[in-house]
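Morning. Coffee machine broken again, so started the prediction first thing and wrote up yesterday's gels while waiting. Chain of 450 residues, entered below exactly as on the submission form.
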Amino acid sequence: MLKEGGIYPAVIEGYASGGEGVARIEGVAVFVKEALRGERAGVLIEHTGHSAAWGRVERLLEPSPARVEPDCPHYGVCGGCQFRHMTYEEELEAKRRRVEDALRRIGGAELPVSVIHGAENTLRYRNKVQFPVSEGAVGYYRGRTHQVVDVADCLLQPELVSVCRAAVKGWMERFHIPAYDERAGRGLVRHLFVRTNSAGEALCCLVVNGRKLPHEEELAETLRRATPSLAGVALSVNTKRTNVILGDEYRTLWGQDWLEEELCGHTFRLSVPSFFQVNREQTEVLYRRALDYAALSGRETVVELYCGIGTISLTLAEQAKRVIGVEVVPQAVEDARENARRNGLEAKTRFECGDAGYLAAQLEREGVRPEVVVVDPPRKGLAAEVVDAIARMAPDRVVYVSCDPATLARDVGRFVPLGYVPVEAEAVDLFPRTAHIETCVKLLRDGLKR
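Came back before lunch.
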């Protein structure tokens, strides 16, 4: 039995979903922080559980050639990145194997993930940042805690975001604006939200525990002086004791409460709560794979569940007869309809607001028989009734875009007994240097040719 505080020799065999190295010591799976595949090390056991243990490298006996010096001073303290201690090539292989292993172990699908599309740019790619705020700190959470690490600059975000962050922190210090204390439920500023676009503009939103802020005009003026390309400053009211970041009520303090962005040849209007992938360049790669898997000829009806503001729907609409998008967030549906209008695709699109399972069943009752169904669900994946409703609509092809390999694999396993066979899968790295990975899987109705 492994003892906490003990040091054991180990060989790192692979990676866990969070990026930790995995070793087997005395028959126990041990997750080792910042350890690389193939390394020999003396591992210090920090915690033991019923079926696994957690540790760190105490003595590195045989380092991997893929090991590199982290390029960020906050790495290992801030919990934002997991792969800065290895080459990008090693990171991509770890992610590719993670998707392939999940499809096999969880979904029962012997489906090779032969391709992972790496990013040309692994630095400053994020177009949306949400900083938690605590007394004296505006930054990111320490790994697996709610302790905020003050981060003046982050290599994942544009420098413009760091300028906005510094301006807000300086304004808080100057006017003694209290940060929110989540344990006590008191204080004002909970989060700083910053969205940027490829034109170099920024939209800033403070999430606050109240409906007003002292010195609101000074906040807007401070940000305008610091950021000449500022498009607007907004306030999001969130007075609930919850981990949900954004509130339901918004107010514009200065400028506009939206940004415009171009993706796959279309122009999108992004409000604060709108979902938009954080890596624009890699999103275009991902959506091209989804479009290829949909195999559209111009005659098809396509249903997209979890359509957000219509980014994939409008891409599909260029090559389909019509696209019906379903989304539960009312503001996102409004944005999707506006985006269809501004891109001249109103006649080929229809957007409905409601729960995906309910609306999928409603479309089925209406007699909608799509040739293709596309899903891009949140991390929790599809509810079982959504899978059932899709199968009852009997599309020829299902294209599943996923941000979580485990729930993707589970859902692929649910489709198989309903007559759908997974035939292709590719991974796309939208989140370099972090443990997140996107995947696109194509499923065909049993009996159809690829």
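The first strand starts at residue 7 and ends at 15. Going to sketch it on the whiteboard this afternoon.
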